[in-house]
Amino acid sequence: VRLFNGGDKLNIIYNSWNNEDDGVPMYSCLTCTACTNACPQLVDYDSYVDIRRSLIVGAPQAEIPHTALQAVLAAEAEAEADDQFLSVEELEIDSNVGYYPGCVDYLDQEMVFSHLNEGSMNLGDTTNAAFTLFEEMNQEVTYLGRDFLKCCGHDQKWQGLTEVFEKLKSYNQKKLEASGIDTLVSSCAECFRTFARDYELDGIKVMHTTEYLTENGFKPDLKAEHEVTVTYHDPCRLGRQMGIYEEPRDLLGDVEGVKLVEMEHHGEDAMCCGVSSMMSCNENARSLRVARMEEIRDTGADMMITSCPKCVSHFECLKFEGDEKYDIEILDVVSFLAKQVEASKSKAKEAVSPSIQSEEVSA
Predict the structure, then answer these.
(1) What structural domains and CATH numbers belong to the chain?
(2) Which among 22, 85, 261, 308 counts the fewest CB atoms within 10 Å?
(3) 223-247: b or e for each residue (b if 16 or more CB lie within 10 Å)?
(4) How many CA atoms within 13 Å lie on the side-chain side of 319?
(5) How far is CA 236 from each of CA 94, 274, 346, rounded to the nearest angstrom?
(6) What is the pLDDT of residues 1-18, one digit of tens each?
């Protein structure tokens, strides 16, 4: 795909500096860090693009499909919206660990956002799944929902809407520091990256859910109901930008009956899902998803696992087109693990029931 290869990103930078245009727009860059990885001088292209976008006056010159949602989030950033959110006192935080769901997950819980695409996916499942795993670990975690914190501002930052991002960041930083937590966990790769790298959270450790599970010894005795072959898609924000590659794979490898196979491009060489910051959801983005889906098919996997709700939604978008060859199950790793935990509990309950009935008959 011409717009997204390394040479063209160099053109994007050159043209923005010289105010020239050869048909390669600034906003086609996915800021996926693939070019920096490939660059022998490790030039930080993403940061340059971020700076250049922030210098553009007015609205971003980009294709933004969810304009209504973006308008809602921009209004949310204003101080007038502060009283719509719960205070620290109202939430009654009773743990030193907080969990932030992110916009996609929260909105799908509250609004069933995915029904707009006429799909069967449930993007809001990841939060419920995370708490299933926390409970299995006997870990006390407080839910810091989107009725307590505002949007993390990831999309606004990368669209060049610096003023909106800074307002969201300022509000959330003050709220988090007042909350008393020392660990902030999120299953959203974009939220995790934003809190960890773009905020200044003194005394608060920011972790992705897979990282939190691994570091806190999540190793339940799990066995897949049926043997299943899975492949793992590395989200750009989680992998190349935050260096988390092994944790999701280790968690999958701990489930008996699960075979992990890798796609041609994986780890730091993984392909992007094609959309970043809710921008430029077009044929170029679609062609990246098609190429990635072909890699998935080539592995022979029954299921694709990832660790980012936006990656899930973008791949599901391709599935909605109805091509049967792309009808592969796609799940967040947290949801996948929670399903195994629930299945294990169900089996244990079924095993106990006959013995109870037998005792009642004997009595």
Answers:
(1) 2-54 (no CATH), 67-215 (no CATH), 223-342 (3.40.50)
(2) 22
(3) ebeeeeebbbbbbbbbbbbbebbeb
(4) 18
(5) 33, 10, 36
(6) 333 444 445 555 555 555
Neighbour-count burial of 55, counting CB atoms closer than 10 A to its CB (0-12 exposed, 13-18 middle, 19+ buried): exposed
State whether residue 328 is helix, strand or coil.
coil
Question: How many whole angstroms from its chain centre is CA 321?
Answer: 22
Query: Closest by alpha carbon to 245, among 329, 178, 333, 324?
Result: 333
**Beta-bridge mates of residue 279:** 276
Q: Report residue 88 as tokens.
A: 């620290």
Nearest partner of 15 among 31, 27, 32, 30, judged by Cα: 27
CB-based contact 306:333 (threshold 8 Å): yes
Q: Do residues 324 and 201 touch, judged by C-beta distance below 8 A? A: no
Angle at 207 between CA 201 and CA 212, to 5 degrees: 145
User: Dihedral sign, CA of 168, 189, 327, 274?
Assistant: positive
Residue 211: partners with Cβ closer than 8 Å, 6 or more residues away? 244, 247
Counting other chains too, the contacts that 167-174 makes at CB distance below 8 Å and 24 or more residues apart are 167/77, 167/78, 167/79, 168/73, 168/76, 168/77, 169/198, 169/199, 171/77, 171/82, 172/199, 173/199, 173/200, 173/201
Structure tokens at 340: 């195994």
| Signed CA dihedral, 277, 167, 184, 112: sign only | negative
**Upper half-sphere CA count for residue 242 (Cβ side, 13 Å):** 26
pLDDT of residue 1: 30
Q: What is the number of H-type helices and E-type strands within the chain?
A: 15, 8
Lowest-pLDDT range of 67-71, 221-225, 246-250, 318-322: 67-71
Q: What is the pTM of this model?
A: 0.87
Residues forming a β-bridge with 208: 186
